[in-house]
Design a protein that fits this description.
CATH class of the largest domain: Mainly Beta
Order of helices and strands: EHHHHEEEEEEHH
CATH architecture of the largest domain: Roll
Radius of gyration: 20 Å
Largest sheet: 4 strands, antiparallel
Oligomer: single chain
Number of strands: 7
Number of helices: 6
Shape: globular
Structural class: alpha+beta
Length: 182
């Protein structure tokens, strides 16, 4: 059994982030979505250049729709293209994993992970139901640590786990509503 909590510090290259990201979305789907985005952007620019403002706005709205529907794809691609090496500080506790980004820690409940899979030979990819994706080098995480995450993930799929998730959501909503009032 893994010692809990555990913390991992590692660096990911562009390739270690983009390859699993594209495979998670499906390479063909990713190319189709990006191609559609570029087409709508080009069509908007062409229409604006010919003074067809309403058509240009229409194509920009289609572009915005594509971006919103596939924002996770675009965020991952933009991150890989703009940041050569991503430093990751991952803290895994009993029921949650915290990833530190730009000085702030973001938490994901372990029972919300949908899958743990290798999309790249050296990288474990953890896909969360909220769309978040964690990439962990295989050399940085032990099988016992992965088993801890897997068991929490499986616990969330049981009837008792689903009830616990619903109750946690209600408590979080209650806390947020109380904070709005103050």
């Amino acid at each position: 059994m893994a010692e809990i909590p555990f913390q991992l510090h590692y660096k990911l290259s562009r390739g270690q982030r983009i390859v699993p990201h594209l495979r998670l979305w499906g390479v063909t789907s990713a190319l189709l979505i990006v191609g559609l985005f570029v087409f709508f952007l080009f069509a908007a620019a062409l229409n604006f250049s010919k003074s067809r403002v309403s058509d240009g706005i229409g194509f920009l709205l289609f572009d915005c729709l594509v971006f919103i529907l596939a924002r996770g794809l675009f965020v991952g691609i933009i991150d890989a293209l703009t940041v050569p090496t991503r430093e990751v500080d991952l803290l895994v506790q009993e029921n949650a994993a915290g990833v530190q980004l730009r000085g702030q820690r973001w938490w994901l409940f372990l029972d919300g992970f949908l899958e743990i899979r290798k999309y790249h030979p050296d990288i474990w990819t953890l896909h969360h139901h909220n769309g978040s994706v964690l990439h962990i080098p295989t050399t940085e995480v032990s099988e016992a640590q992965l088993d801890h995450i897997r068991s929490a993930m499986e616990r969330g799929r049981t009837p008792e786990g689903v009830k616990a998730i619903i109750e946690r959501g209600r408590r979080i909503t209650q806390i947020l509503n109380e904070n709005k009032r103050t």
